[in-house]
Amino acid sequence: HYRCRSVYKLLEVDDKYHILCPGLRVIDCGTAPGAWAQVAVQRVNATGSDPDAPIGFVLGVDLLHVFPLEGAVLLPRADITDPMTQKKIQEVLPKGMVDVILSDMAPNATGIRQLDHHKLIHLCLSLLDLAQHILEPGGTMLCKYWDGGESHLLQKRLMQDFQEVKTLKLQASRKESAERYYLAKSYKRAARRASE
Ligand code: SAM
Which of 15, 76, 148, 169 could form a disulfide with 117 if both were Cys (CB 3.0 to 4.6 A apart)? Predict the structure, then answer.
């Protein structure tokens, strides 16, 4: 009943590190087709299906169309790096803020490994700029990257902005794949207000 096999990656991370809890606000970057968002909706209790637990919030953003998902607010056909998208995100989020940033984003692969790696690293770096505006201090970020020569740039930025950064190679990823995830915890920066 999940929309995509990539769901096993998020389940693997969350079963081990418990980054999604009832009541948390989550942005899922690169949502389509929506399997990660399905997990996020369940685990933060976004539909209120557990009446005894706090109710969370899930926002999904993707370049592509995403079929409606109960419990999630969706921003389809939106580029996360576009300042207009960032503005919309802030408008839609409760109090403009999230506790968790998830990113399973991937640019269209050219097949040229170096180039694909470079593009994805820079996509992740742009998320850190977004984080300055929307991520609560203490918050968490999980992001996919393809390992290569520029990974250290992203890792360095993450280590500046978060107290703890782990590199994850998941069982659920294909063995020969360069796919990795950074799990960054305890965001250190105070949110920058729009007026600054
Ligand atoms: N986690 C998803 C799931 O479980 O259904 C699968 C995500 S898929 C591997 C990667 C997605 O990232 C694609 O749908 C792609 O359109 C999206 N994407 C890539 N670049 C993006 C960008 N700049 N802004 C928003 N979404 C982007």
Answer: 148
Give Cα 105 to chain centroid, integer Å: 8
Query: To which residue do tokens 């692969």 refer?
Result: 109
Look at the alpha carbons of 135, 25, 34, 141 in this order and tell me if their dihedral is positive or negative: positive
Q: Is the CB of 69 under 6 A from ligand 1?
A: no
In the reported structure, the alpha carbon of residue 62 is separated from the centroid of ligand 1 by a whole-number distance in angstroms of 6
- Locate 107 and state its tokens: 């640019």
Q: Contact at 8 Å (CB) between 133 and 86?
A: yes
Would the pTM of this model clear 0.90, i.e. be above it? yes
**Does the interface ipTM go beyond 0.90?**
yes
- Range picked from 84-88, 109-113, 174-178 for highest mean pLDDT: 84-88
144 is catalytic: yes
Task: Please indicate whether residue 80, judged by its CB atom, sits closer than 6 Å to ligand 1.
Answer: yes
The values of phi and psi at residue 144, to 5°, are -80, 140
Question: Which class for 28: exposed (0-12), middle (13-18), buried (19 or more C-beta within 10 A)?
Answer: buried
Spatial separation of the C-alpha atoms in residues 125 and 188, rounded to whole Å: 16
